[in-house]
């Protein structure tokens, strides 16, 4: 009840922070898709690189999120971006790499070799096999990776407030320092709602993009 | 025409040749079956023709062009390619699957649509129903048909087929084989066909190339392979039941009794009945004025009938085509537990009958390797 009252009194601020949060996450995930998917594809051609890349991405994933945001400060202050949006986005991009790269790699790699053989045998170039056969067939698994990355980024994005990037995390951190439960709850619930809605949205897009022939 | 000259393949890191010095020539419009046990190099040999596997040494010509001088992508687009596990793209509709190569070659949409429908009709799949289906919505047999159809999409003169009917139950396989032979008799492609099934090889091949450990052991017509196996290996591979396998090879028209007794549907029933009694016949085939098979009558049906034979005729459900092989005919006989089948041509004209006696005569023959002909074996084992 108290939480609801807080939301009603501060709905403009809540929306503003939610917008900031969403913006942060969408930039990070967009960058992550445009780096992770190509990297995932590239390592299907290069087994040695695959081991290294998946290992590194795995290590990044194990760094506690708050520590990763902390590491960003000394690293990026060299370029004058120690705190704020930039280090937050960089950290989120790094976190998103593992699910995206791993799923892309596994999905492209798992396409039935007979089907690839059919494509090559009929005279497709390597890129045509990739673009016309492997990627369309891998799409739903790649999408699953992206969805994991998005939901995770929305959650971890709350911690970005800690290094001054704003977002719904502000409510949570401010609420903790002021021991103001309603504020904490508003922030937490808003983050959860955003995650659920975005995940649903991606599910909808996935259904549209993935071929009907691949549905179970 | 496909010509292989001293073709050898040694895989990197292996000291043994997977394909060893093979010479082979497939004339225009013929099916050459590559056969052998697994690991004999038959698939490797086929895949070198469209350069999916690089040649270690030797030459492969299609027409008079050396495949090594051609752009590998262009080469493959000009060769039909159908594979074992069908290899249909699951995310594409039947139309898009068939259209794969035409699209790569940049055909116009209207031309592609026309060709797709034409090909679907050729394999007797209703275009309106099947065009927009996805592979998962097809039965095994339908998917196989689409797989073969896809290989024919641009009407390439040469086709490579790697066990294209492998992943399918025996009954449907027979149907697909017959259908493919029917199509081939019209389109006359030059085909290299890989299989490990000797029955399929005998049925499909104009020539059979038997491979063992990368070497070409014998390259001959099916008849020759059965009658004059070059050595013990070929004999063992073809199997001890060589005489039985001739049933795969011989067509109904080779063994049937021609001009069987029959009457016309407009004949007087009493007259026909009288003649049947004279000849001691219980059944008689009935044709119309143009010799098309109407069915049959039994003596009891017409013996006291005042009208025409046609009034009492019963339909003949079981017939065989002239080009079907004797094995199919025999299996029909056995399935329906009757001693005789009627052979008709494509227009349902009565051509002959086959009974267990005629089949027994064919199976009973044994090949005399000294005389070079098939003959009957007497009790003494001597060939008459």
Question: What would you say about this model in short?
Answer:
The complex is a heterodimer of chains A (216) and B (384). With 216 residues, chain A is an all-alpha fold.
Explain this structure.
With 216 residues, chain A is mostly helical. Chain A has one domain (2-207): MetI-like fold (Orthogonal Bundle), CATH 1.10.3720.10. Helix content of chain A is 80%, strand content 0%. Chain A is built from 9 helices and no strands. Chain A has helices spanning 2-9, 11-42, 47-62, 65-77, 85-109, 113-121, 126-157, 169-177, 181-209. The N and C termini of chain A lie far apart (44 Å). In chain A, 40% of the residues are buried. The mean pLDDT of chain A is 88. With 384 residues, chain B is of the alpha/beta class. Chain B has 2 domains: 2-245, Rossmann fold (3-Layer(aba) Sandwich); 254-361, Roll (CBS-domain). Chain B is 36% helix and 24% strand. Chain B has helices spanning 42-49, 72-77, 94-98, 100-104, 109-122, 127-130, 140-151, 170-187, 198-204, 222-227, 232-238, 242-249, 252-255, 269-279, 299-302, 326-336, 356-364, and strands at residues 2-9, 19-26, 31-35, 57-62, 65-66, 79-82, 158-162, 190-195, 207-212, 215-220, 257-258, 262-264, 283-287, 293-298, 319-321, 340-344, 350-355, 365-368, 373-376. In chain B, helix 16 links the parallel strand 15 and strand 16. The model of chain B is unreliable at 377-384 (pLDDT under 50). The chains are: A mainly alpha (216), B alpha/beta (384). The interface between A and B is medium-sized, with 22 and 30 residues.
What is the fold-level CATH name, i.e. the topology of chain A? MetI-like fold
Quaternary organisation of the protein chains = heterodimer
Number of helices of chain A: 9
Main beta sheet of chain A = none
Mean pLDDT of chain A: 88
**Structural class given helices, strands, pairing of chain A?**
mainly alpha
Secondary structure class of chain B reads: alpha/beta
Q: Rg of chain A to the nearest angstrom?
A: 20 Å
Number of domains of chain A: 1
Question: So, the CATH homologous superfamily of chain A?
Answer: MetI-like
The number of distinct β-strands of chain A equals 0
